[in-house]
């Protein structure tokens, strides 16, 4: 079986470096392009991640990289400000997008699904590629059938740009699919400090904590008469996301259209 040709957008970022390293170390994958707007364009991508030189220079021109590298897949861990344009460009050149960046609206996803189908390619947009995080979401959705009163608390570093996190939003969506909308708490509740009860989603609350020294954690807390249940996932290292990214790179070669959420690949 031939290698899957992979381009990495955001190659100099913390997640992007892990993707580059994973691709270079996997014999079934071939790195054909590394794109970053902040890195030295003369830097070899292998050397940039602490490996031997691989012959692929980091570039800041995504379109040129797609044209010259002819990748099968673009893995994108960039920013919400650039990911939509990156995805559109990848689909234009029939490159399958595997997106780990948040910033899409439902309308964006619907439009990219149409474009992928028209091009005869697949694409994956996933707020979280951690297998443990996906299991946390699935367990939470299952628990919500029996304990519908809940709140979500997610924790990230203080430099994270979006709140709530894509993982928290995806968790809320999955919970809402298995739980009827329920307005929780005292109907006369009043916030004396605006926002202190968190964001409201389908009747329950989402709280975003942003602190230095925090990596990525999330817990879903369920309350019922005489008991509580907490389902929590903690990430400690970005390398923990790479097994899921590898699964996505392989799976995206097998279907047409956009799949939203990595949970569709976890039975």
Automatic annotation (TrEMBL):
Family: Belongs to the DapB family.
A Pfam cross-reference name: DapB_N
GO molecular function per UniProt: 4-hydroxy-tetrahydrodipicolinate reductase
Pathway: Amino-acid biosynthesis; L-lysine biosynthesis via DAP pathway; (S)-tetrahydrodipicolinate from L-aspartate: step 4/4
Keywords of the record: Amino-acid biosynthesis, Cytoplasm, Diaminopimelate biosynthesis, Lysine biosynthesis, NAD, NADP, Oxidoreductase
Catalytic residues of the enzyme: 156, 160
Annotated NAD(+) binding sites: 10-15, 100-102, 126-129
Subunit (UniProt): Homotetramer.
EC number annotated for this UniProt entry: 1.17.1.8
Organism: Paenibacillus baimaensis
Localization: Cytoplasm
The protein, known as: 4-hydroxy-tetrahydrodipicolinate reductase
PANTHER family (alphabetical): 4-HYDROXY-TETRAHYDRODIPICOLINATE REDUCTASE 1, CHLOROPLASTIC-RELATED, DIHYDRODIPICOLINATE REDUCTASE
Domain Dihydrodipicolinate reductase C-terminal: start-end pairs: 132-265
Known function: Catalyzes the conversion of 4-hydroxy-tetrahydrodipicolinate (HTPA) to tetrahydrodipicolinate.
Residues involved in (S)-2,3,4,5-tetrahydrodipicolinate binding: 166-167
Catalytic activity: (S)-2,3,4,5-tetrahydrodipicolinate + NAD(+) + H2O = (2S,4S)-4-hydroxy-2,3,4,5-tetrahydrodipicolinate + NADH + H(+); (S)-2,3,4,5-tetrahydrodipicolinate + NADP(+) + H2O = (2S,4S)-4-hydroxy-2,3,4,5-tetrahydrodipicolinate + NADPH + H(+)
Dihydrodipicolinate reductase N-terminal domain ranges (all copies): 4-129
